[in-house]
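Q: A reviewer asked whether we had any structural model of the full assembly, not just the individual parts. We don't, so I'm hoping you can provide one. Inputs are below.
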Amino acid sequence: MPERQPALLVVMIDTASLRWHVAAIGSGAQVIPLLRSEDGNLDEYRDLEPDAQLSFLRHRFAGVLQRGCDRLYPKQMKVSHFLLIADGHYPDAQPDTTARLAAHFVDWMINPPVTYLLHQGEFREDSVTESLDSLETVAGELPETVAASLWAGWAEMVELLSQPDCWELIASPPKSIE
Amino acid sequence: MPTTTKSSVLIVDDEPDVLFSLKGLLRRDFQVFTAQSGAEAMEVMAEQDVHVIMTDQRMPSMTGTELMGKVRAEHPDAVRIIFTGYADTRAVVDAINSGELYRYISKPWDPDNLIEMLRDAAQKYNESIAESELLDQLDAYLTDAVQLASSDDPADRDAASIEKFKSRTDQLRGYLQCLRGSDA
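A: Here is a predicted structure for the entire assembly that you could use as a starting point for your response.
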């Protein structure tokens, strides 16, 4: 089995457009844009009952994380830590949805571990400082090495959000039993 | 015993990019078939010799557990695996307890671990076929062995008969080796 380079897998969740981007941050703060969804990829939850909303979001983000792992594999990289970063709470969802969603991933995914972070407002290149004080940890641990890698890659990662061609577009599936 | 060099795996998921990604991941180690629905999967199962079937649980029209019930009834030798985005506990626990599944795995999985798990599943398929063949053939083989040992008829011991018997012996040994491999 080839030796794979460890990388952070970062899911950036835009709660206004209900879309997500997935990037990897490798050694030396190398940022690799991987995947993006269409706008409204998450909006199906809005029509559901609270428990079903949570179920939908858990399932959708599990698939997002899976795709990220799959895309890193041919690059000889392997996820060492998952970071889910939302720019707010989910509109039209129960107030505790973010906390329950975050707790689910942290409880169920131990290796590699997960941290769910809440960013104060829209992602901007300068919205995260070295202290990461604009990021609230909702669930999970944020080891210093992971925080340092995130900080090192943040500005470039956010700058790439405005370049849609850098990311592989994942078409939204048809509305289903989710 | 399967005759193809690579074990065959059927992946079922309603999202095409997931199938594309998994096919790319697995094609070096396995003969990979894909299907986007339970109905399409059953068509592939009818046409191809599928050793391992791995399906998403959450699909429109037919869920993974419903599909596995059909596969178990119509292709009982195929090793069955369900994957899902989270602990969709009731359906999956029911499926495991009713003996319909070999493994249940949740996303995200490590690609290296997935390949390893599918290799194990393919080995289980080979063992299952070997055991079945061994049981099918052993009784007739022993009857013929006793006949050969006790016969006074030279025709029973001519070169062609001996060669045929050796060939059957080797075949049974092959099945035994396959089964013993699982104990190692």
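A: Points you may want to mention in the reply: The first strand of chain A starts at residue 5 and ends at 14. The radius of gyration of chain A is 15 Å.
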